[in-house]
Amino acid sequence: MTIKAVLFDMGNTLVKYDYGLPEEVFRKVLFSLGISRSLDDMKKAFVNAEKEAEDNKLLESMGKIKRAEFWHQWDSLVMKHLEIAEHEELAKSFTHSKWMEFVDSRLYPEVKEVLLELKRRGLKVGLISNGYEEEIILVLKKANLERTTFDIIVGVDTIKKVKPNPDIFRYAISKLDVKPEETIFVGDNSEVDYKGAENSGIHALLIDRTEKQQSDLRTIKNLKELLSLKLTDFFHKS
Ligand SMILES: [Mg+2]
Questions:
Q1: Protein fold of 5-17+106-235
Q2: Nearby residues of 130 by Cβ (< 8 Å), 6 or more positions away
């Protein structure tokens, strides 16, 4: 048995964003619309919006409803918790494309080289992200990575499932015609990426570029390490 495919998460795995928190971006977009709020207010509003979005099932609807509709409801909810009077109305001009004007993304330095080398070795490469397909394409474009680099791109709307649901991983490998045990998934989130992949029988790897690396999980610091991994490396830890 050999490894035939390597699948990647996108954010903080292949692509680095130029902001720390989504709250910061939201704040900038609001400011461009003439509304000023502190970062602390933003953080509180996000916490409350998230609670409400869980109760009213908005979070569950991600990928199941259209991208514009999902973000409209989310943006409106955050603005409601910021006590912005015309939040429903304002959320209409607060489209996700507006959001994209305020964020930049770039690839981690080793990404292109690693992806090309994996492909040169005959492996299939894929992307599974908890974003809408349209957003993934926009981010890749900003990061200057050809979408055709990937044999498959899976977003939340592809089969209307989000990570860590094992179905989203299984869908990708069935499309690539590889078995779970022939596949590696690399991501930066231990729950969403690592556990999700592992629950689908795929070999999971955590990428952690920080110095501390305190996880018990099978961890790499740089994607270049993928190039020297052997299948037997996956039998040491489970
Ligand atoms: Mg990520």
A1: Rossmann fold (3.40.50)
A2: 62, 155, 156, 162, 163, 192
